[in-house]
Amino acid sequence: MTTHSTTRLDGSDMDPVELESVVGSLLEPDCAPAGTVRLGPWTLEYVAPRAFAHTLRLLFGARIYDVDPLSGPARIIDGGGWLGLSVLRFRQLFPEAHITVFEPDPAIFQLMCRNIERNGLQNVTTVQAALSGRDGQQTFTATGSDSGSLVAAARGDVVAVPTRRLSPYVDEPVSLLKLNVEGAEADVISELGNRLAAVDQVLIEYHGFAELPQSLHAILAALHEAGHTYVVSHFDESNKSCVPPLRVTEDYRYFLLIYSRRLPSRAS
Q1: Does domain 68-267 have CATH number 3.20.20.80?
Q2: What is the pLDDT of residues 110-148, one digit of tens each?
Q3: Whole-Å CA distances, 98 to 53, 68, 95, 174, 196
Q4: Banded pLDDT at 3 (limits 50, 70, 90)
Q5: Could you count the other beta carbons within 10 Å of the beta carbon of residue 217?
Q6: N or C: which end of the chain has fewer CB within 10 A?
Q7: Helix, strand, coil % (nearest 5) of the chain?
Q8: What per-residue string of b and e applies to 76-112 under the rule 16 or more CB within 10 Å gives b?
Q9: How far is CA 259 from CA 150, 159, 220, in A?
């Protein structure tokens, strides 16, 4: 695939021409279902090219995971790393941060690790497990794309994966918690309990799926109780259920991005 030389406004800006060239190549009808692309200084291995392209646009074009400077010492917990693009973005933004990333799908986990290793990312701890409300093992639907889930309806191979509670990883302050866990976010936040107050900034992709209980209210209440101020965004114009004119149907399916942080006036 053809890419162009990279010109950055600063160390965290991706050249939009190069980004769209790579995205366009991934969206071509004859794009290989798996392979590698070159983007800026990185060589990235991918599967599910359309989902990969969409994620590139969101993270490096729309910059949906860009947050305020991290509180120190900089610690990021990334729940749901998929192919490692969120880790790459966080490393761009916060070169000194320690990142702990969770990914349950066994094949995707190996691919994510290869992307982290081949691009020389240091100070990253990888955990092959799904974040959940309990430690143990659960069935997981592996889709081969970014929609594998412990709880949501999906088409794929059902495999057993280890599950981990988040609270043991928040035994000291966390600068940023990001969750993209395909419907398990409410269970993870509930299990975290009062340790959520030890997290400075939070990013949660909320999955509003008809087959799952509505839990947005519970997540927002937990953030409020932990002293966080939050905003909620549909974050993507293709997320049609959240763009007017609004409708609620029996088979509703939508996504929201929740961002929150502990403002000094509330944390004191």
Answers
A1: no
A2: 999 999 999 999 999 999 999 999 999 999 998 888 878
A3: 26, 16, 9, 10, 19
A4: very low
A5: 9
A6: C
A7: 30, 30, 40
A8: bbbbbbbbbbbbbbbbbbbeebebbbbbbbeebbebb
A9: 23, 31, 10
Q: The pTM is what? A: 0.92
How would DSSP label each residue in 166-226?
SGGG-SS-EEEEEE--TT-HHHHHHHHGGGGGGEEEEEEEEEEETTS---HHHHHHHHHHT
Structure tokens belonging to residue 94 = 């916060």
C-alpha distance from residue 90 to each of 12, 45, 213, 218, 241 (Å): 9, 18, 31, 27, 29
**Residue 125 token pair:** 């701890």
Confidence at 264, pLDDT banded by 50, 70, 90: confident
The span from the CA of 118 to the CA of 97, in Å, is 19
Contact 141, 43 (CB under 8 A): no
What's the pLDDT tens digit per position in 211-263?
999 999 999 999 999 999 999 999 887 788 888 888 888 998 899 999 999 98
What are the residue ranges spanned by the domains of the chain?
A: 1-63, 68-267
Q: What is the DSSP string of 95-112?
A: TT-EEEEE---HHHHHHH
With a cut of 80, say whether residue 265 has pLDDT above it.
no
Q: Given pLDDT bands bounded at 50, 70 and 90, which one contains residue 1?
A: very low
Contact predicate 184/149, CB 8 Å? yes
Amino acid at 187: D
Measured in residues, the chain has a length of 268
Could you tell me which of 205, 165, 207, 167 has the C-alpha nearest to residue 183? Answer: 207
